[in-house]
Amino acid sequence: xxxxxxxxxxxxxxxxxxxxxxxxxxxxxxxxxxxxxxxxxxxxxxxxxxxxxxxxxxxxxxxxxxxxxxxxxxxxxxxxxxxxxxxxxxxxxxxxxxxxxxxxxxxxxxxxxxxxxxxxxxxxxxxxxxxxxxxxxxxxxxxxxxxxxxxxxxxxxxxxxxxxxxxxxxxxxxxxxxxxxxxxxxxxxxxxxxxxxxxxxxxxxxxxxxxxxxxxxxxxxxxxxxxxxxxxxxxxxxxxxxxxxxx
Length: 247
Description:
Layout: H1 15-28, E1 37-38, H2 40-47, H3 51-63, E2 67-70, E3 74-77, H4 82-106, H5 109-123, E4 128-129, E5 132-136, H6 138-152, H7 158-185, H8 190-193, H9 199-211, H10 215-237
Antiparallel strand pairs: 1-3, 2-3, 4-5
């Protein structure tokens, strides 16, 4: 079965690192449901790997929050809950607004060019797959991550960038979960449920504030952008704020 990560550009050279990247993207993309068992034998068959690097890859993914290890029971995909989503979103606000603040203070002309180019590429893509309103566009999602990467790229902190990338991927998993939940329940897709929201305009406003080096406005817009996305993910997936776990 084809996975979401075949022909992965820039993939790590070691087998274990490659498996980590493949599994992470396939979990984010919804190939494995939250809470589902990750049987090493089955995974080895799917990815053409041997048990030792596969087990090591799963162990690495436990530290980044995508996989959970169970005593004497192996591994499973990390569960999903409203609480987890809000904690990830809250941490993302803290990390990315600080990284954006530093980028605005330190960014040069090359940084501005990266932001403008990433925003232009994102603006040319549709959020949803053509003819499939409930399906997220993988191409848009990749460009969206690149856009946020560009905004933060002049912050000067490798640790902040790594934290931001991890939280962004973990949050993206919830967007896929919410799209599937809305489709399975017969609810209109998130795009229709949020018709009042103009996501491209939000991105444009963030870019304009960033290029103007308006720290207060840019960070406030970014925080609002994340909070609106979080609310939509909660609504579309049917998770409530007090809910602990999703099926």
